[in-house]
Amino acid sequence: MIRQALLTALILLPSAAIAAEDKAAASGGLPQFDPTWFPSQLFWLAIAFGVMYLFFSRKTLPEISSVIDNRRNHIQSDLELADKLTKEAESVQEAYEGSLQSAREEASQVIVKTEESMKEKAAQSFESFRKKSESDIQATETRLEKAKTEALSDMTDIAAQVTSQAVEKITGQKTDEARAKSAIDALTSPKQKKAA
Amino acid sequence: MANPIKQFEIKPLIEIPVGGLDLSFTNSSLWMAIAVVVSTGLLTLAMRKKALVPSRGQIFAEMMYEFIAGMIRENIGPKGRQYFPLIFTLFMVVLLGNMLGMIPYSFTYTSHLSVTMALAFMIFFTVIIIGLFKHGTHFFSLFVPPGVPMWLMPLVLPIEIVSFLVRPITLSVRLFANMIAGHIMLKVFAGFSAGMIGLGIWGVSALGPMLFNVLLIGFEILIAFLQAYVFAILSCIYLKDTVEIDH
Q: Min CA distance, A75 vs chain B (Å)?
């Protein structure tokens, strides 16, 4: 009900106004072609246009352009900063990787060096041990040889003594020990030569 | 039935006779003043914070700026920056005139040929004066399109000159005719509704024209924006001749 009344009012109000205007309506062509108001139209248009032009060109447009430029610069500088930081991070990573690489190389070098020195040491100690044992063997052998010859020469003496005593006992004759010895020497010398 | 022409009538509000001229402040002048206040006021209000991250109003103001800046960049080129305030003001004057005219009982100053013609001739004379100042007599080579054989010149030259001279007429009449036609149509359909009610015809038959008017108003708002855009872009294209002549 209320809505319908409102609608009626909404429709009737303009029509009433139009009707009122209609009564006052003057006959004639379009008001646009009535030159009476041309000066006023042009004058006020010029003023309105001038005010708007001045206001926009002095205030609004520089303001908007400065805001836009400001934003663009801000974004640009942010991007540049980000770029710089990325590069910095990259260089830090590179340095880190480089130091890691060099540390790795150093470590492997140390390992190789240590291995080599250990090997050398082992070889050295082995060599010295070998030399020592060789010289020990040599010394023992010479001592043995010496003892052998000594023993052999003692044997000759003992043999000469034994022979001479045996001859004395058996024959009852005095024997020359020196002669016996030379006889034994003559007997053993070819043998000895062979052994040497 | 209501006279659909009545809405275009100018009524003086304050009489200001200057010499032999009548410079009265009229209803047309009032809506021009309203346009000034609304456009400058809204843009100032929108830009008052100058925020790095814009508010809705600021986005709108920046959109208008970028819209006109893009229009100038595309149609005039980088040298067109000098015309930026001019085109921006022109666009705002026409847009506000068209849009404020959509308010019932308001006055559409862009529906007056004297207004649209003043704006068009302003552009026309700007083109001629700056063009002659910058290019000298070379400016007239505008009428000699490149690549036209010599024997065609007697035909092409008059056509080019006429099409140049007719620019302010077409520019102003296009806007004026669009505005006046739209507003007359709105008024006529509103008059149908009122007339049918006056005759005691209710219901769908009376609501029909009104509903059609609702659609028409949406369409007229589109036209209001479109005509402001067309006016501004054609002004850009004309002003291009002052910056560079292709040949």
A: 10
Grade residue A178 by pLDDT with cuts at 50, 70 and 90.
confident
Per-residue exposure over A45-75, b if at least 16 CB sit within 10 Å of its own CB, e if not: beebbebbbebbeeebbebbeebeeeeeeee
Domain count within chain B: 1
Closest residue to B24, CB basis, from A40, A42, A60: A40
Work out the angle at residue B63's Cα, subtended by the Cα atoms of residues B58 and B69, and round it to the nearest 5 degrees. 130
Chain B residues near residue A53 by CB distance under 8 angstroms: 85-86, 89
Which amino acid, residue A125? S
A75 vs B contacts (CB less than 8 Å):
none
User: Given A11, A56, A63, which is nearest B85 (Cβ)?
Assistant: A56
Question: Given an 8 Å threshold on Cβ–Cβ distance, is B89 in contact with A38?
Answer: no
**C-alpha distances in angstroms, B208 versus A159, B58, B78, B211, B215?**
166, 40, 51, 5, 11
A5 and chain B in contact, CB less than 8 A: no
Neighbour tally for B214: CB within 10 Å:
10
The pair of structure tokens assigned to B40 is 């400058």
Average pLDDT over chain A reads 82
CB proximity A87 to B under 8 Å: no
**SS3 assignment, position A26:** coil
Distance from CA of B105 to the nearest CA of A (A): 9
pLDDT of A125: 92
Domain residue spans of chain A: 38-195
In which domain, by residue range, is B206 found?
Answer: 10-243
In a domain, B2, yes or no: no
Q: What is the pLDDT of residues B80-111, one digit of tens each?
A: 889 999 999 999 999 999 999 999 889 999 99
